[in-house]
Design brief:
GO cellular component, one term: Golgi apparatus
CATH architecture of the largest domain: 3-Layer(aba) Sandwich
Distance between the termini: 91 Å
Strand order of the largest sheet: 2-1-3-4
Helix content: 40-55%
Protein name: Selenoprotein H
CATH superfamily of the largest domain: Glutaredoxin
Order of helices and strands: HHEHEEEHH
Radius of gyration: 29 Å
CATH topology of the largest domain: Glutaredoxin
Length: about 160
């Protein structure tokens, strides 16, 4: 038969000291300090970014833009392609290369923000939407049926 436990052992206070038990007490005491340091580092990094913006502001004499802005005749095209499947990526790259080769003054970016699921959309920044395929289930047949060369030519005609 197994020996009976004392009341002291039943509470979880074993008279035996092991290496893992001794280390556990030190970790609990050090944990709040480590978390406080991380917060300070984040605040310091945030402050550095603000200082850089202020430095740009003072150097140029005007406010630093928070995002990419379009000046003059240069147009910016945004391609939003889901990251769920490589089919989106290959088509987005093909459209990007086609537009940049036809119109060198144009700026094309793929997924500047987190893309939506099952989405393939080509749009002008702050303006016209050229194509929008949303919430496509697998196997993404509407996107795969598209003729990308024809799509690129249509977008070039609309932009020119």
């Amino acid at each position: 038969m197994a020996p009976r436990r004392n009341a002291k052992e039943a509470e979880g206070l074993s008279p035996r000291r092991t290496r893992s038990g001794a280390v556990g007490n030190k970790r609990e005491a050090a944990a709040p300090v480590a978390r406080a340091k991380k917060k300070v580092r984040f605040e310091q990094a945030k402050g550095k970014e603000e200082d850089k913006d202020k430095a740009k502001e003072s150097a140029t004499g005007e406010a630093a833009p928070s995002s990419v802005t379009v000046t003059g005749d240069a147009k910016s095209i945004i391609i939003e392609a889901c990251k769920q499947c490589n089919a989106f990526k290959t088509r987005a790259l093909k459209v990007k290369e086609g537009l940049q080769s036809a119109l060198p003054a144009i700026s094309v970016s793929i997924n500047p923000l987190k893309p939506r699921r099952g989405c393939f959309e080509i749009r002008e920044e702050g303006g016209e939407i050229f194509i929008s395929l949303l919430n496509m289930p697998r196997p993404f047949t509407p996107m795969k049926k598209l003729d990308m060369d024809e799509l690129i030519q249509d977008i070039i005609k609309k932009l020119a």
